[in-house]
Amino acid sequence: MSKKTTNHNINVSYPLRIIIGLLLSSVIGILFTLLVSVLFSYLLSNSEMISGYSVIYLIFSIIIGGFICGYIGSLYLPFRGIVSGLFSSVLYTIIIFLLLFIFSKGNLSPYSLLLIFITILSSSIGGITNVNRKRRK
């Protein structure tokens, strides 16, 4: 089995590098999603913003988290941008879907499928953005 070197000068095997990239990108994407969601929740509770816009805030936080997930995933995954974004969004999408399922008490709607589509799309855009950024250097 051949050894590859990551950007951090750590020798890891090819499949291990992919697994690390998937886990790291998903965890960072989830953390950003939670951070943006907490920020919006704080703004809603401490201001006179209309709470009917909470769905828009949720979609925005998922877009930001998905983009970060795809961007980070393309740093570690040796695929093209859209493929690395799709691969890195798998675990992130599963976690978001499980959280939606838990908080909606098992009542999933077409809205949930829309959120999954948005998550996959934003992760792919994040992967494409990072690959295009690398090519310009």
The major beta sheet can be summarized as: 2 strands, antiparallel
Strand order of the largest sheet: 1-2
Question: What's the number of helices?
Answer: 4
Overall 3D geometry?
Answer: globular
Brief sketch in words of this structure:
The chain has 137 residues and is mainly alpha-helical. The protein is built from four helices and two strands, in the order E-E-H-H-H-H.
List the helices and strands and how they pair.
Blueprint: E1 3-5, E2 11-13, H1 14-45, H2 54-76, H3 81-103, H4 110-136
Helix pairs in contact: 1-2, 1-3, 2-3, 2-4, 3-4
Task: Walk me through what this model shows.
The protein is mostly helical and 137 residues long. The chain has 4 helices and 2 strands. 77% of the residues lie in helices and 4% in strands. The longest helix has 32 residues.
